[in-house]
Amino acid sequence: MKALKYCIAAGLFALGTANSASGLDKAAEALYQRHCAACHGAQRLGGIGPALLPQNLSRLRKKAALEVIGQGRPLTQMPAFSGQLDDAELDALADFIYQPPAEEPNWGLADIRASHVVHHPKGSLGDKPVFEADLQNLFIVVEQGDHHATLLDGDSFEPIYRFQTRYALHGGPKYSSDGRYVFFASRDGWISKFDIYNLKVVAEIRAGINTRNAAVSFNNKYVAVGNYLPHSLVLLSADDLSPLAVLPMTDGAGNSSRVSAVYTAPPRESFIVALKDIPQILEIPYGHIAPDNPRVKRIKLEDYLDDFFFNQEYSVVMGASRPAGSEVSESAVSGRVIDLDSGRKLADLAIPGMPHLGSGISWRYGDTTVMATPNLNSGAVSIIDMQDWQVLKTLETEGPGFFMRSHDQSPYAWVDVFFGPNRDKVHVFDKQSLELVKTLAPVPGKTAAHVEFTRDGRYALLSIWDVDGAVIVYDAQSLEEVKRIPMSKPSGKYNVYNKTHYEAGTSH
Hints:
Cytochrome Bc1 Complex, Chain D, domain 2, Methylamine Dehydrogenase, Chain H, globular
């Protein structure tokens, strides 16, 4: 309730202080202030409803936004305006929210502190789970269809608890090292801490306007939040999410950058920060996070790198280098390999198709270790030898992929073909022969994506990305279907053990 009051107050305050965006339709802006500002904020920064800025709406097509404005959104507080506004007014509103504001919005330390809500202070909840299950074999399933999450028992495959989340979670939930707490980041910048043992939200805070993801230090002391808007990295206390520091992402020469992602690196006891607009990687040691002056190590690069993949020791990072043009040649450098200790470049990666390194996996292959990554622009999986950083083999798929998964105890690697006409299929490859074993199409016409394994690797869970979707459980050896669990667009599933023990077959 306190959070709700804050959102309303923020919206009303913004209503009185908003600056009109130059060049925008004044009539559309007036419609927005009259019908939308109380929930979304007069500067479109969000409140009860999500932020309505171009950066936050990048995944929502304007046609879909127009439908939401006119018809409302089920299971939310978003009303339908088709009965109050004519078609021209609806079109004007849709155009307005996709226009950038006249001034770059800011969200500083004072704003962050004002949003902070502690629902259950530390020590006020019991230390024993209120349910019975293997606590290391639990899954958090993010259901994008109606903005909920489900705690799933990884042995019985029965839901334990389903709860509402903030709008449009992004970047995947992150666990404390013991698996008791899970931290969520929403695209609108809200960070939520959920106590799995007690099935309650402990605290919330809004750390940005457009947030990419959050990372939790392995010593359970800090949460780092990477933002696209504003260009900042926010450091929070993991106890209650109270803010510690806001670090502007600048290079000292007046240039600023969006944060592509932030990662925790347990062996290094540090956070690693990927930047979108400055050719640098940042490293912030856990032991040097002081509110007044956190220590930041800067690794200067030849090019902009994001979408990172780390080796298991976190001594080496592979970063994707996005080409300026739409076409990628066979010889184009699409990534680089950087030694995090020396900052030295170890190799260039020539992979056509724009590799999705953040979804890469690794495993032992003969006398070497390989990593495999799907590609966002081509129907191929690239297998890279992590000794000489050469492409060992390219596996053809029926379309560009997004997610790839395996497990140490599984002989197979799974990859979707998320983009294109064959998105209802998933390929299963043998990790030693590097040959296709089987192609699954569990629900023809509906996107199949994002596999995650149980703690022991015996079962693989696959999502059907549809509002009337499901999590499908497969026997990871026979590849036969075991069970279907109806869910609302289950975009991702995250196993406690695999994520807290940094299982080689899952993304980090």
